[in-house]
Amino acid sequence: MTFCLPKAQSAKFLAAVNSGELNPIRLGGMKSAQRLAEIAKILGDDTAKEVNALFESKLLMPNYMQGLMNWVKEVSGAWDPKVRQSTIDKINNLDERILNPGTQDAFLHSLAAEKLGFNVKPEQAKLIFDKAQEAKKLQDEWKKTLNQNVPRRDVNNPTTIIRMAYGRAVLDLQDLIETMKPGGQTFFQHLLDVVSIPKTLATGILHFSAIGVQAWGMISHKVTWEAALEQFKYFYDQKNYDDLQAYIVSHPYYEMAKQAKLGLTDITDQLNLREEAIQSSVLQRMNTWVADKTGLPINVLGASSRAFTGFLNYTRFNRFVDLVNAAKSVSEDGNVHPQSLADIASVVNNFTGRSNLGVLDEYRNIQPVLNALYFAPRKIAATVQMFNPIEYGLLYKNALETGDYTALKASVRQLTGSLMATGAVLYLANMMGYSVDFNPSSQEFLKIKTPSGEKLDITGGNAIWIRFLGRMITGKEITAHGKEIDLGEGYKPTTRDDLLKQYIRGKLSPVAGAITDAMVGADPVGRPFNLSDEARARMEPILMSSIMNYYYEQPDKAVSDLPVLAAMFGVNVESPVSQGTRHGLNAWGEPAASNLFHDEPRTPLDTALDKIGYVQRFPSNTINGVKLTDQQQKEYIQLFGTMAKARLTNLVSSPTFADMSVSEQQRFVKMLVQNSKTNAQSYVTAHALGTSNDILRKSLKNAQDKLLGVTEGQ
Question: Which of 412, 432, 452 is at the close of a domain?
Answer without folding.
Answer: 432
